[in-house]
Automatic annotation (TrEMBL):
Gene3D superfamilies: Medium-chain alcohol dehydrogenases, catalytic domain, NAD(P)-binding Rossmann-like Domain. GO terms for molecular function: oxidoreductase activity, acting on the CH-CH group of donors, NAD or NADP as acceptor. Pfam families: ADH_N_2, ADH_zinc_N. InterPro entries: ADH-like_C, ADH_N_2, ER, GroES-like_sf, MDR_fam, NAD(P)-bd_dom_sf. This is Alcohol dehydrogenase.
Length: 335
């Protein structure tokens, strides 16, 4: 059957991951059992959440053991099947190992069939038309309850999820303020239609800058950063504001020293709802979300933003760049 390439965890990262933390290895091709199918990875997703799986501490996914393959979302094609519901040629998204071939079953965590549309590049189904778009939709509408006319602030706005959040909020009639970390990133989000962009690295007082462009306050904050950013924005929230906590990338590289947010009393003062979420907790809404995302892309209201690499072996390099803040849009590796 041949060999399979895998990316293993060679050592636990300290701070920003380094190439030495990963190892490219080969193993025997897995054989699907009864009800299982063999999948060839076509697109690997590089996500900030993976950083949390590399530390030896509890998370919503069991930590990766030393010497074991990294775990993440990927899109693959079924190349051998013992499951009639997943015949050869089916495209599937799932949480799987960083392996160029892997075995799944129909009850694998997060598994979804993908039906690529003519003229749409396959990698977009791991970005704005896939987990990224679904995460943005769930956080903004199911958790954040964003409504037309409201003011939405999103951090890490030039990233995969943030850039999608801003565009779909605009598509729903919201006013959108994006926070990012360079003039280049601010230009990107303005080109995507954001009403305002703030470079947090260029201002010593992020709260004052947000107040200038949102003098009546913030209705929804889509939080990808946590820490000092969350602390600055909470006092700007309007009565009954909502905070959708998608991630806290500002702390992933130093999880042993989390930042203590000092403004949590604002949750009581303004009766703010702040909730973390995982997309698949809202499985009953994902078909609706997918339909709206597909429609917005077709109408030109949602422009997928992707940072692409080619080659399975590029997964660690792409992940390091992501965690170093050097990427714009969704970081993906085409196999």
């Amino acid at each position: 059957m041949g060999k399979v390439r895998q990316i293993l965890l060679a050592r636990r990262p300290e701070g920003v991951p380094k190439l030495e933390d990963f190892q490219l290895a080969e193993t025997e091709m897995p054989v699907p059992g009864e009800g299982e199918f063999l999948v060839a990875m076509r697109v690997g997703s590089v996500d900030p959440a993976i950083r949390g799986f590399l530390d030896d501490r509890p998370s919503y996914i069991e930590p990766v053991a030393l010497g074991e393959p990294i775990k993440g979302m990927s899109l693959g094609e079924v190349v051998e099947s013992n499951n009639p519901e997943y015949p050869v040629g089916t495209f599937v998204r799932a949480f799987a190992h960083w392996s160029d071939h892997y075995v799944l079953s129909g009850d694998a965590w997060g598994i979804e069939k993908v039906n690529p549309q003519p003229g749409v590049d396959l990698h977009h189904y791991m970005g704005a038309l896939g987990p990224v778009g679904l995460t943005a939709w769930v956080g903004l509408f199911a958790v954040g309850e964003a409504k037309p006319g409201e003011t939405v602030v999103v951090s890490a706005a030039a990233g995969a999820t943030g850039s999608t959040v801003g565009q779909i909020a605009k598509a729903k009639g919201c006013r959108v303020i994006g926070i990012a970390g360079s003039p280049e990133k601010i230009e990107v989000i303005r080109d995507l239609g954001f009403d305002a962009g703030i470079d947090y690295r260029a201002t010593p007082d992020i709260a004052t800058e947000i107040s200038k462009v949102a003098p009546e306050g913030v209705d929804v904050y889509f939080d990808n950063v946590g820490g000092e950013m969350l602390e600055a924005i909470l006092p700007l929230m309007r009565l009954h504001g909502r905070v959708a906590v998608c991630g806290m990338i500002g702390q992933y590289n130093d999880a042993d020293h989390p930042y203590g947010v000092k403004t949590l009393w604002q949750l009581v003062v303004n009766r703010i709802k702040m909730q973390g979420f995982i997309t698949f907790d809202y499985a009953e809404l994902l078909d609706k979300a997918q339909a709206e995302l597909d429609g917005w892309v077709a109408e030109g209201k949602l422009k997928p933003l992707a940072n692409l690499r080619d080659g399975f072996e590029k997964l660690p390099e792409a992940f390091i760049d992501l965690m170093s803040g050097r990427t714009i849009g969704k970081t993906l590796v085409r196999i």
